[in-house]
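Format notes (please read before filing issues)

Several people have asked whether sequences and structure tokens are stored in separate files. They are not. Every record keeps both together, in the order shown below: the sequence lines, then the token lines. Line labels are part of the format and must not be stripped during preprocessing.
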Amino acid sequence: MKYYLIESDGYVGRVRHEQVLDALGASIANGALPPGTVLRSEELQERFGASRTVAREVVRVLETMQLTSSKRRVGVTVREPGEWNHYDPRLIRWQLDGPARPAALATLNELRSAIEPCAARYAALRATPEERGRLGALGERLARTARARDLTTFLEFDIAFHDLLLGASGNPMFAQLSQVVAEVLTGRTGHGLMPPEPQPEAVALHLEVAAAVAGGDADRAERAMRDIVVQARDEIAALVE
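Then the structure lines:
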């Protein structure tokens, strides 16, 4: 596959970089370029119709994601999956867009099951009054957009809800998983793994989490968030089968 774009400074140049990065990264993430594959700059330039500068930039990004490593006189080598940075949102997006989607969803749901209920517990204990109020407001907006079957706006509020909850936990490591959760939620909607109308039970559970956090009830918040993750897992399993 080749891309032919007029390269220049500014927006067009950035688009070209992102196109080549997405194409090459997805090929690695989904096994089309298996571990041990050696890529050379000249081959990348030819394959994608890219300049040397773009090829180097793409390789640099892939190395920061730990998908590849470079050695002089060898080239760029695709690394083993166990060495990849699996928390990188771009890698998650590439996996959800390809044949690795079922396995990626299962792995991500396990991560959410381990983290988000704990985050809800600590949010109930540590959230500021402002955060408690904002979480409740987001819960109400989720309920309104669910009734309207507005999945696009529902997704925006859902991402904001989980982002706020992770941040309100007071744990910066939990907070940094916000983009991971956002990619999961976006992937579910983008790939038709959401019901045409968000389930009333799921919306009610979000409101339950918000109420528990507002009331400082850690056990209740953790339980409701665990139920949210379990329900999401079951919905995805039913739609993937």
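For reference, the curators noted about this record: The CA atoms of residues 45 and 55 lie 6 Å apart. Residues 101-126 form the longest helix (26 residues).
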